[in-house]
Write a structure and sequence with these properties.
CATH class of the largest domain: Mainly Alpha
Mean pLDDT: 82
Shape: globular
Radius of gyration: 18 Å
Order of helices and strands: HEHHEEHHHHH
Structural class: mainly alpha
Strand order of the largest sheet: 1-3-2
Distance between the termini: 49 Å
Number of domains: 2
Number of strands: 3
CATH architecture of the largest domain: Orthogonal Bundle
CATH superfamily of the largest domain: Transcriptional repressor of class III stress genes, C-terminal domain
Largest sheet: 3 strands, antiparallel
Amino acid sequence: MNGVMVLSSLSDQIEKYLNKLLGKDEGQVEIKRNQLANEFDCAPSQINYVLDTRFTSEKGYIVESQRGGGGYIRIIKVAMDSIDENLQQIIANLDQPLSQREAYGIISRLEEHDIITEREKYLLEVALHRQVLGIELPERDYLRSRILQAALEVILKLEGED
């Protein structure tokens, strides 16, 4: 149990560090995976884990990497310039199965950019939780995608009325 706490804490520290760099460098940072792993005294796979779970496209990031001796990782925070365009793009991409983690990433990003309220965020998260949906995969991920798509279409319609 303690090992999980340490890993979670380490992941949190790495995420905070990278977000701090992103804040300084206008939403884009380039780092060396091995240097970052050395700085945090962890395996490069831990860096990969943080990138794969905390810096996803659903959360508004693009992660590019090049392996090898001169390899790097570039993280780009994608700005949400037009709410309507971004919602339309998210809706268009919801024609495929959507995991709970992916859905929560989209929802968090919408709340971070004040497109939905904290209350709406929690309501959507509860509605899309695997236990609430109560059906087996892969149908559950398709249903989650359709529910989120319908909710975002309502938000987009209401946004257009303002």
